[in-house]
Amino acid sequence: MTTPLVQVEDLTIDFGTVRAVDGLSFTLEAGAALGVVGESGSGKSASASALLGLHRGTGARVTGTVRVAGTDVGAADEAQLRALRGGKAAMVFQDPLSSLDPYYTVGDQIAEVYRVHNSVSRRAARARAVEVLDRVGIPDAARRARSRPHEFSGGMRQRALIAMALACEPRLIVADEPTTALDVTVQAQILDLLHDLRRETGMGLLLVTHDVGVAAESVDDILVMRHGRAVERGPVSEVLGAPSRPYTRELLASVPRLDGGRVGGPGPGAAPPGAGPLLEAVGLRREFGRGARRVTAVDGVSLTVRAGETLGIVGESGSGKTTLGRMLVRLEDPTAGRLRYGGREIGSLPEKDLRPFRRELQMVFQDPVASLNPRRSVGESVADPLRAAGETDETRIRDRVSGLLERVGLDAGRYERYPHEFSGGQRQRIGIARVLAAEPKLIVCDEPVSALDVTTQAQVIALLAELQGELGIGLVFIAHDLAVVRQVSDRVAVMRQGRIVEQGAVDEVYGSPQDPYTQQLLAAVPTLDPAHAAARRATRSELAAA
Amino acid sequence: MTGFLLRRLGGAVFVLLALTVILYAVFYVAPGDVAQIACGPRCSPAQVAQVTEQLRLDDPVYTQYWHFLQGIVAGQDFSTGTGVEHCSAPCLGVSYQSDQQVMQLILTKLPVTGSLVIGAFVCWILLGVGTGVLSVRRRGRVTERVLTWLTLAGTATPVFVIGLLLIIVFCSTLQWLPSPAYVPFTQDPEQWAWGLLLPWVSLALIESAKYARLTRSSMLETLAEDHVRTFRAYGVSERAIVGRHALRGAVAPVIALSALDFGSMFGGAVLTESLFGIPGIGRELVHAVKVVDLPVVVGMVLVTGFFVVLANALADMLYALADRRVVLS
């Protein structure tokens, strides 16, 4: 029997008083692929770092044994550890922008790493860099090797990081959330690339991800982690098809699916059929910059939102969806086009005439940390819209805020607490409570759940659906995640390069997409069924060839 | 790049113009008999009258100023009583007290101050950045604490104390060095370097503390960034990470600070020049202020301003070279 490529026994990692990993054991055979899946704080990234001994010198306490490709990581000296890192096991990190040095060319950075493990000339190392960049699909690699990271797109940067990992032909690639910062179509390309490389070179792959779908696409075995422990381990089809643990079942149930139905539905507050639209945009346009540097972020968008319904807007980064959302609530002024709210033109109203509408048009932002003032108690933040509306009676304000906090599922007794004392999901609830305080008629939610774990995501989506049914609010739900948009929307608009390429009822757009771009997007969404994933990988390469 | 240079040049001209306006307002539109002050206390009424005519002090203020500007751009003729002396552009006027053209006076002092500043600059960059790198490499150990303490002591000690100490130790007690004196580079390069060594070192000791701290903090900041983690995870040695990746992050801030220091040092190395008896711009400026030689004071402040502006424009360009993400605009 051969020794496994990775052998982890009773691994425990403590950061100060926090136990991130608690007695984890697993093995990975040579050439196999293991997905480590879990929510934030489950210890999956800390475990991955331990494989390369990256906790050394950081103050973290690591116990247990980790053997990777014949090296005992815990006992290895500096030289052995350096030989392991990059030479036998290479790591691909999450954020491709910050993971490369902005000051050096991409080719030089790969060459530097190559020269650490091979005594070759600079020229030979550069040639190797071009070779691996070419292998990961960087067009015109010899020339692009001389570019600096900021001249690469997100997808290309991630390819460059994978090229760096390939440079020394390691036996194992550890990929920590390699596609989390990428658009869904780019994500699919990167996952396909990893798949091909593995088949070609026979390397082992340890893929750390919060996205069960990403794992399902790429690995043979799955290890589900929670609170630093292994919950369940087995072949992908078994763990995802017939999970044996309650937590795995809960996790899988929370994952939004493309074929799932709408959460909630039109409630009593919904507009009666035939009623006019709440908000109507016609030919909305927004440009930034002047002269040769002018960029059209939104290019002639027309849409309507009715009371009590949700319009989903999906698109990849740079498609103009956020700018559009901000224009709908007049946080951004349209360059051209009309915007009618409740039958009145508000697109060109000056700020002072807009005041009566400001309260009714609200926005929920993506980052629940950045959108709350860290120096003020959450109760004060939620009270802001009330005070802005002229309420001065402190007891009335307190009662109303307490009511709102309870309404979004928080303990009203935490009025005086500060944002850092709440979890991500709770902060987003606070954000929603603040918006509700203004008694809005229309809320634009810009990626409201994309920073949250799936189980939390599901709770926030349920809350939004519930509130909408109760209050008959019109919702515009902006997201890059097609499955999430499907869950919450009645109608959906697909954006690309500032334009809406397809718009219609959710079932129609998802069921029989007409625009090639929509088809491409839908084909790129990871699926939980590994057999299905393989079939779609084939579909993608056909679409790419077409 | 050309567009950037033109715009930067336009900006520089504007700053210098603004400087001339302020200087002119402060010195020539001041209360009192400007002609008498400029000419000096021992001037006869006839000489004062001549100065009044020279500087057009009887004309309205804007004509006077225009005349002054004209001199800088196109040159001027001065009557010396017996004949006419031409002062070619850029003409900063004539010192009535020493009967010398201000520009010529500055030109004789410039190589002296230049020698001092450029040499000190090289020393303080080497010393400052070197100390910064060393304290990063040895962070958390005794060496770092000692270095931090030493650089702090360096900043806290005035230049005349450090300078005097150096002179006493190296020139008087140990007699390793000749007493500091200025010998022109063109005359004897070796003497030039030995004579300026102590002034360079004392200026560098004062300045390098800032650079050591700046280098250290920028490098520590870079070391905390994600891309450093990437290179650690690929087995790149700590030495290469500090020397190649972290130091690179410190280059831009060091350039920015150097530009400010380098420019202002041209007019501001007063104490050092006086202490070591170096006949540079700083010492001349002190003298001119003492005897209220107006044209000289104004001229020297203008030239210093010119160097500050020039150094900053240079720094902007170097900055863009150091960090390719910076778009010159």
UniProtKB/TrEMBL annotation, chain A:
Belongs to the ABC transporter superfamily. SUPFAM superfamilies: P-loop containing nucleoside triphosphate hydrolases (SSF52540). Residues 6-252, 279-522 form the ABC transporter domain. It comes from the Bacteria. It comes from Streptomyces mutomycini. Keywords: ATP-binding, Nucleotide-binding, Transport. GO terms for molecular function: ATP binding. InterPro entries: AAA+_ATPase, ABC_transp_ATP-bind, ABC_transporter-like_ATP-bd, ABC_transporter-like_CS, Oligopep_ABC_C, P-loop_NTPase. This is Dipeptide ABC transporter ATP-binding protein. It holds the Pfam family ABC_tran.
UniProtKB/TrEMBL annotation, chain B:
The chain crosses the membrane at residues 12-30, 112-134, 146-177, 192-209, 249-271, 291-315. Keywords: Cell membrane, Membrane, Transmembrane, Transmembrane helix, Transport. It is found in: Cell membrane. InterPro entries: BPD_transp_1_N (IPR045621), MetI-like (IPR000515), MetI-like_sf (IPR035906). It is a multi-pass membrane protein. Residues 110-319 form the ABC transmembrane type-1 domain. Belongs to the binding-protein-dependent transport system permease family. PANTHER family: DIPEPTIDE TRANSPORT SYSTEM PERMEASE PROTEIN DPPB-RELATED (PTHR43163). This is ABC transporter permease. It comes from Streptomyces mutomycini.
